[in-house]
Design brief:
The protein has 358 residues and is α/β, with parallel strands linked by helices. It is 36% helix and 24% strand. The protein is built from 14 helices and 13 strands. The strands form 2 sheets. A 7-stranded mixed β-sheet has the order 9-8-10-11-7-12-13, sandwiched between helices. α6 runs parallel beside α7 and α12 runs antiparallel to α13. The radius of gyration is 21 Å and the shape is globular. The two termini are 35 Å apart.
């Protein structure tokens, strides 16, 4: 890893080193050197400091209001921008009565769908006139980056009004062919659900909901899709079947038939993704599972037979569908990732072994 020379311990020195070494996250905590996430692994950086210096680093990112909120025992989740325009997503919390911070190092540019090596069918999902598209995966799997690339593609190719609701805002979108408004929860609006209700009176064509966290938000997002808008959102799920289960389970039992019926009318696709290290350890690539809202898929959703989705994705490659195991096996065959990496990343190890002929 590269070295970085700095005369003073500062957030900029730490994050500059992280960017130079292609790190995704930075952790600052008392009594330990700053730690970085590189290719999915945590590694110590070449910095040393005292407990007081680490505390000062964390406090240097906070406004007066945030400092007061922290003193009341609250955790903080916010975006932070350096003077040179470099942006970060920050969570500040306490552990063992000491301050700690987790900092996501964001790209300043918005990568294209081609840059991200995403399947061509994702472009087709971004071209849908209405409906709902979900991007899912574990924390740190690149969901926000994929959504930013999709929104940027729409921004370049359509003449539409885009409203994003995020907590916090990660990528800044400048209006190109589209008019783009970005709202941050707790700063511009009280909640995701409130923002969605207001959006219905703000003439949007495309709505991005940062996360579907609860019944209110899910219900409002589905309603927005039903009323003719294209809605994007995320969930922390690791497959298409689990995603649909999670949404339906949020509803009381007497309403689950209704939400399945609603989803079968508006779902356009589910993209599940995870980031895996390249075989040569030069970086990471994305592995995906793609579910497209074909008539057969929507009928499965309506009937709640999610166990059939795996075989449906396997047999419909012609329309862009595939399972995560199938995509991991393809990356192995291309020599991009190792078989061992694929096995660790696979949700269905048996299916992957079948693809690889093991």
């Amino acid at each position: 890893m590269e070295t970085y020379q700095s005369n003073a311990l500062s957030i900029k020195a730490l994050t500059d080193w992280g960017r130079l070494n292609d790190c995704s996250d930075l952790h600052i905590t008392a009594f330990q050197p700053p730690t970085f996430r590189h290719l999915g692994d945590l590694v110590p950086g070449p910095f040393t400091g005292t407990r007081e210096q680490y505390r000062a680093l964390i406090l240097s990112m906070l406004s007066e209001y945030q400092t007061e909120e922290l003193s009341l025992g609250k955790d903080l989740d916010f975006s932070f921008e350096e003077a040179d325009g470099q942006r970060f997503r920050v969570n500040v919390y306490r552990q063992q009565n000491e301050l700690a911070a987790a900092i996501r190092i964001l790209r300043n540019d918005i990568p294209s769908l081609a840059d991200l090596r995403l399947p061509p069918v994702i472009r087709q999902l971004a071209e849908q006139p209405r409906g709902i598209v979900l991007v899912t995966g574990p924390t740190g799997s690149g969901k926000s980056t994929t959504l930013a690339a999709m929104i940027d593609y729409i921004n370049e190719t359509r003449k539409a009004h885009i409203i994003t609701v995020e907590d916090p805002i990660e990528y800044i979108h400048k209006s190109k062919n589209c008019l783009v408004h970005q709202r941050e929860v707790h700063r511009d609006v009280a909640s995701f659900a409130d923002a969605l209700r207001s959006a219905m009176r703000e003439d949007p064509d495309v709505i991005l909901v940062g996360e579907m966290r609860d019944y209110e938000t899910i219900s409002a997002a589905v309603t927005a899709a039903e009323t003719g808008h294209l809605v994007f959102s995320t969930l922390h799920t690791t497959g298409a079947a689990q995603t649909l289960d999670r949404i339906v389970d949020v509803y009381p039992s007497h309403s689950q038939g209704m939400i399945r019926s609603q989803l079968s009318g508006v779902l356009r696709g589910v993209i599940t993704q995870t980031l895996v290290p390249l075989a040569d350890r030069s970086g990471r690539t994305v592995a995906t599972e793609i579910l497209i809202g074909t008539d057969a898929v929507l009928n499965i959703i309506r009937e709640g037979k999610y166990h059939q989705l795996g075989s449906t994705m396997q047999s419909n490659a012609a329309v862009g569908m595939h399972t995560l195991a199938g995509d991991l096996a393809d990356l192995v065959r291309k020599g991009l990732i190792t078989k061992e990496t694929a096995l660790v990343s696979a949700g269905n190890r048996m299916e992957l072994e079948q693809y690889l002929g093991m």
